[in-house]
């Protein structure tokens, strides 16, 4: 069955669900308990076997998770989570930062409340910057690692593709080797646009549709640089149930379809490609773009609005963002109203 993110979200807005999350202290105690470790689910196979730590990242008491959307890391190993802010939260900060051990460091970004979605980070010179897609205000913002806004991108009127601003709603971005930025208009009109590193419009390189070279809900993007001489723009073409490969000028090169359901985003770790799939699974692909392992497959899932007690250990509901936080372990953020961030700790 087609999962409509917008329809599900609309239906869930009336729900008030208290998150059943452990405190950081209780989580630490649990992590040191042999009996607790024995009870944790183990998923995957072979060298891609993982121990599952659901609700590994927990916000401070004055902040309730909303839908947990984006995941990225900085050069120090800190983990950044973008979420929409949950019901009853005192703080409206949307970007939460944790260290590699899972301890809360800081939060910021209250201006993105209700809309914090795509989250990516890039080092530029000696500094690092966050790129945040806000699906509530329909903008892309560049900030420093403390949330100070460098610039914002509104809809590309100069492209000639939009009759009005409400036809535009960016979901994620990707970085070209030369510093340019690709923006996927995933919740708007399904275009992919190219911008300079300074946020200036360059061109529209991909358009909407279901044919080869067209996209429908280009929800996530990544530049695949495994072949340094021929980098490829990969697009999580979610509503078409595929990942597409393009040149950096938008020329179609091929499809990745095996094991793909509703891909949300893409993240690389050397030769491996990590894909959080909204249809209840996280998949790792090898250098040949074939599935290596499916992790936590919870399909079919009807638990988005369910209470925490109904969640199935070791099974995902709606993975929305995922990233390697080092060379081994994975963090997964899920599109559920009270948020859930899971650590997959590689075994062996």
What does this structure look like?
This protein is mostly beta strands. The protein has three helices and 26 strands. A five-stranded antiparallel sheet has the order 1-2-26-25-24, with no helix packed on it. Strands 11-12-13-14-15 form a five-stranded mixed sheet, with no helix packed on it. Strands 3-4-5-6 form a four-stranded antiparallel sheet, with no helix packed on it. The relative contact order is 0.15.
Q: What is the gist of this entry?
A:
The chain is mainly β. Helix content is 6%, strand content 40%. A five-stranded antiparallel beta sheet has the order 1-2-26-25-24, with no helix packed on it.
Short descriptors:
Neuraminidase; 348 residues; five-stranded mixed β-sheet; five-stranded antiparallel β-sheet; mainly beta; disordered N terminus; globular
């Amino acid at each position: 069955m087609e999962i409509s993110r917008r329809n599900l979200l609309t239906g869930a807005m009336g729900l008030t669900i208290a998150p059943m999350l452990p405190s950081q202290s209780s989580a630490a105690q649990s992590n040191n308990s042999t009996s607790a470790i024995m009870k944790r689910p183990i998923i995957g196979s072979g060298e891609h076997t993982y121990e599952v730590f659901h609700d590994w990242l927990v916000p401070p008491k004055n902040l309730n998770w909303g839908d947990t959307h984006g995941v990225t890391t900085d050069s120090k190993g800190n983990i950044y989570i973008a979420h929409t802010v949950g019901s009853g939260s005192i703080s409206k900060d949307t970007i939460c930062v944790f260290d590699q051990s899972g301890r809360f460091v800081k939060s910021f970004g209250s201006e993105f409340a209700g809309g914090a979605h795509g989250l990516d980070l890039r080092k530029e010179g000696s500094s690092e910057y966050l790129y945040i897609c806000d699906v509530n205000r329909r903008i892309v913002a560049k900030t420093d690692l403390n949330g100070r806004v460098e610039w914002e991108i509104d809809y590309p009127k100069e492209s000639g593709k939009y009759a009005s601003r409400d036809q535009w709603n960016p979901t994620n971005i990707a970085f070209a080797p030369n510093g340019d930025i690709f923006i996927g208009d995933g919740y708007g009109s399904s275009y992919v646009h190219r911008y300079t590193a300074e946020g200036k419009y360059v061109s529209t390189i991909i358009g909407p549709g279901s044919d080869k070279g067209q996209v429908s809900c280009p929800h996530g993007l990544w530049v695949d640089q495994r072949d340094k001489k021929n980098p490829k723009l990969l697009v999580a073409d979610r509503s078409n149930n595929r990942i597409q490969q393009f040149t950096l000028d938008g020329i179609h090169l091929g499809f990745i379809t095996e094991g793909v359901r509703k891909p949300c985003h893409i993240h690389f770790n050397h030769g491996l490609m990590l894909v959080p799939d909204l249809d209840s699974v996280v998949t790792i692909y090898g250098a040949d773009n074939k599935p290596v392992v499916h992790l936590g497959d919870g399909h079919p899932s009807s638990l988005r609005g369910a209470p925490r007690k109904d969640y199935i250990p070791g099974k995902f509901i709606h993975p929305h963002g995922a990233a390697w936080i080092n060379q081994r372990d994975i963090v997964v953020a899920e599109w559920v109203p009270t948020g859930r961030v899971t650590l997959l700790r590689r075994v062996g």
